[in-house]
Amino acid sequence: MTRRLENTASGLATAASILRAGGLVAFGTETVYGLGGDATQPQAVARIFEAKNRPRFNPLISHFPTAAAAFEQVVPNALAQRLAKAFWPGPLTLVLPRAAGSTVSDLAADGLATLAVRVPRGDAAQTLLRLTDRPVAAPSANRSGRISPSDAAHVLEELDGRIDAVLDSGPCAVGLESTVLDISDPARPCLLRPGGVTLEALQAVCGPIALPDTQSDAAPLSPGRMLSHYAPHLPVRLDVTTPRADEALLAFGPQHGSPAALVWNLSEHASLEEAAARLFTGLRTLDGEGARRHLRGIAVQPIPEQGLGLAIRDRLTRAAAPRPGASSGHAYSIPAT
Ligand code: TXA
Ligand code: MG
């Protein structure tokens, strides 16, 4: 049984004591719900992988209440200090050389010479991390390869019975995972995953940033980059301008009598912030309801590639990508008539 804890002083205290005892607690951050475990206890970290069914070669992000706490575990350079000042607490993860005295277990860091650290925003996450007073490893609280959870009900759909508790702090404000930036070589910042902090905002602080190759499975660099990820059960068709009656539609912008059988509008007035916050719930809803109604797939309207659109498109491209072991792609197309 997974306990549902309220976002109250006693709920937070219980959550922190479960974490300190080596248990697993999912908690809301501004991005998505994380599946938290004490990063310094290898058994707790092993339980995270087990609960998620996650391949063990994936390194985890360690979470901290402050930049000062994060920078005890890594070797921060001047760029890290500037980025922390500009974006923490907030949806940015920095990959830096691991400090010699780091207490984060090898299992959480996957034995790498670098460590991913993040200071999330949001009162519940902040208080929980402060009370726990340990680095907290937290991948998104979904089964490996599935859609990330942006509220506590999604966490229970994925992990009920597999974790000790979920701390319910309501829906996540940003709704997309953090941006992961590798600055272990500050002369060459490299974007490993687009996310809640836009590339434009980062470039204003860092200058030029090397971009990920979204077409390839750059597994060794950042295993979360696996091409098939965020996978709904229904196939996904991208950049659709004319949806069909037998499709579920993930819409963006004003709709004028769409023929689609089922519509989830990411944002009526084409706001990328609103679209990001509604993305994972929309995919989950269309997937469940669309399958019940025997629809052929999920059609996605075009989404601009600037600002948060880069991260939204990245997640949708992965949702449409071929699944490991599948003989054909999960994307489908409809011949032009
Ligand atoms: O918003 C988020 O980042 C959420 C919340 C819960 O904080 N967490 C999250 O964790 O998305 P996860 O495990 O699903 O994604 C972590 C990403 C993966 O792509 C992983 O490969 C990458 O960070 N990563 C972690 N440590 C790394 C390292 N040392 N070098 C390169 N990439 C790393
Ligand atoms: Mg994830």
Automatic annotation (TrEMBL):
Detail which positions bind L-threonine.
T31, A138, S178
Note the NCBIfam families from the entry.
L-threonylcarbamoyladenylate synthase
Binding positions for ATP? R54, N58, H63, T114, R118, S140, S148, R193, Y230
**Keyword Calcium found:** no
Q: Which GO terms describe its cellular component?
A: cytoplasm
The UniProt entry's GO biological process terms, in alphabetical order, are: regulation of translational fidelity; tRNA processing
| Family the UniProt entry places it in | Belongs to the SUA5 family.
What does the record give as the function of this protein? Required for the formation of a threonylcarbamoyl group on adenosine at position 37 (t(6)A37) in tRNAs that read codons beginning with adenine.
What UniProt keywords are attached to this protein's entry? ATP-binding, Cytoplasm, Nucleotide-binding, Nucleotidyltransferase, Transferase, tRNA processing
Where is the protein localized?
A: Cytoplasm
Give yes or no: UniProt keyword NADP.
Answer: no
> What organism, scientifically named, is this protein from?
Acetobacter garciniae
**What Gene Ontology molecular-function terms does this entry list?**
ATP binding; double-stranded RNA binding; L-threonylcarbamoyladenylate synthase; tRNA binding
| Enzyme Commission number | 2.7.7.87
Q: Where is this region: Disordered?
A: 320-337
| Domain spans labelled YrdC-like | 9-197
Instruction: Write out the catalysed reaction.
Output: L-threonine + hydrogencarbonate + ATP = L-threonylcarbamoyladenylate + diphosphate + H2O
Protein's name in the database: Threonylcarbamoyl-AMP synthase
Pfam families cross-referenced by the UniProt entry: Sua5_C, Sua5_yciO_yrdC
